[in-house]
TrEMBL record:
GO molecular function, one term: ATP binding
Keyword ATP-binding: yes
PROSITE patterns: ABC_TRANSPORTER_1, ABC_TRANSPORTER_2
Official protein name in the record: ABC transporter ATP-binding protein
Annotated coiled-coil segments of the chain: none
Amino acid sequence: MIKVEDVTKNFGGIRAVDGVSLEIQKGSITGLIGPNGAGKTTLFNIVAGHFPPSSGRIYLDGEDVTELQPHELFHKGLLRTFQIAHEFSSLTVLENLMVVPGDQPGEDLRHAWFNYRRVVANEERVRERAREVVEFLEIPHLENELAGNLSGGQKKLLELGRTMMVDAKIVFLDEVGAGVNRTLLQTIARSIQRLNRERGYTFCLIEHDMDFIARLCDPVIVMAEGRLLTQGSVQDVMNDERVIEAYLGTGRKHKRVSES
C-alpha cells in the first residue's frame, strides 16, 4: 500500500533520514521502532506530506504522492495522528468528530441560506456517524464532554475516532500509547485491532512500549540513526544484536529492548 523509495531528509547539515526504503502492506499493523533520534517521526512527516523529502519518492497504492500536501493525502485516505493530541478544546467530543468530514454543505453560505434542509439532513447523518464512533471506542459517556477536559489517553482515543469519520485507508499513529494509563491503553489496542479486522484499516505506528508493539504489530521495522536497521517479527527484532546494541549499547544483549 505504501512504498518508501530511497528517501532522504536533510535539515541543514543534519541528515535525519538517510536513504530509507520500505513497504507497508495493505491490511497490516506495522510497527516502527527505534531509539530517540532515529528519524521515525521525521519519516512519518514525510510520508504524510508535512515535510518534502530531500530526495526519494513516496507511493500510495502505486501512485506517486511525494509532492502532495497533507489535505490532499487526507482525501486519498492517508491520515496521521501526533504525539500530542490536536483537539478543539472548546468543542465537545461529538463536535470534534463532526467537524472532520470535508465538503459539508453547511460550509457553503449559499446552502446555508437557500438549501437549509440539505444542511440539516447532512448534519444529522454526520452526528449519527459520530455517535457510532464514540460507541465503537467505548466512550459514549464522554460525547458531550469538552475535549479540553479529557485525559491524555481519552484525547488519543478521540484522535483515533477522528480517523473513523472519513474513509481512511491507512493511518499513521505517532506514540499513541505515550502517557496513557494501562486501562485506556487496552481500549486503544482493542480499537486498533477491530478497525484492522472489521473495517480493513492499515496501520503503521511508532511506539516505545514493546508489550504494546508485541500485541499489535507484525511486521516490525527498526530505524537507527536515520537508517533502516532491520525488519521482521517482534521476536526476531528483539533478539537481533544490532537492535539491542542500538537501544542499549554493546554487550547488553540479554536485557529487554523495552527497558530503554
